[in-house]
Write a structure and sequence with these properties.
By secondary structure, the chain is α/β, with parallel strands linked by helices. The protein has helices at about 1-20, 55-65, 130-145, and strands at about 25-30, 40-45, 65-70, 80-90, 95-105, 115-120. Helix 2 (about 55-65) packs across helix 3 (about 130-145). The longest helix has 18 residues, at about 1-20.
Length: about 150
């Protein structure tokens, strides 16, 4: 029993430190996609999103100097340069938290994406949705700058 206790004392902290700490933040340029020429965005409210992440994404774009509005598809203006779509995944671990946020910048005419980004943060390194939206958008814009 004493050996088992020592084993637990040694390996249990390692399990908790490394087991649930995954972070991924990536962006991809879509082949044959458009370039980000202009700076007006429409963030489309995702069906089923009761937390209004479209507003958080819109605000992150505005903070980066872009013109951005959000809402339902029927409210999208005709003269918009980029359609922004997103998918969110939530988990429960002593409370709900955003584990994954995927964002796509699309051509508003045909909805073909030209850059896609994703951020994943598990429970031990979770962040607020605002932080995650800013994180993935920054990575997407960085990837677009590399492609110029």
């Amino acid at each position: 029993m004493k050996k088992f206790s020592k084993f637990l004392l040694l390996f249990l902290p390692i399990f908790f430190i490394t087991g649930c700490a995954i972070h991924k933040n990536e962006a991809f340029i879509i082949p044959n996609g458009d370039k980000l020429e202009n700076k007006s965005f429409f963030v489309l409210h995702s069906l089923g999103d009761k937390r209004h992440l479209e507003e958080i994404i819109r605000d992150a774009l505005v903070e980066k100097g872009f013109v951005a509005i959000s809402g339902q598809k029927e409210n999208m203006p005709e003269k918009i340069d980029v359609l922004v779509t997103y998918e969110d995944r939530w988990m429960w671990d002593l409370g709900n938290y955003l584990i994954q946020l995927d964002i796509q910048f699309r051509n508003p005419k045909n909805e073909y994406p030209f850059v896609a980004g994703e951020t994943v943060r598990t429970s031990l390194i979770r962040k607020e949705p605002k932080f995650m939206a800013d994180e993935v958008i920054s990575k997407m814009l960085e990837k677009l700058d590399e492609g110029k």
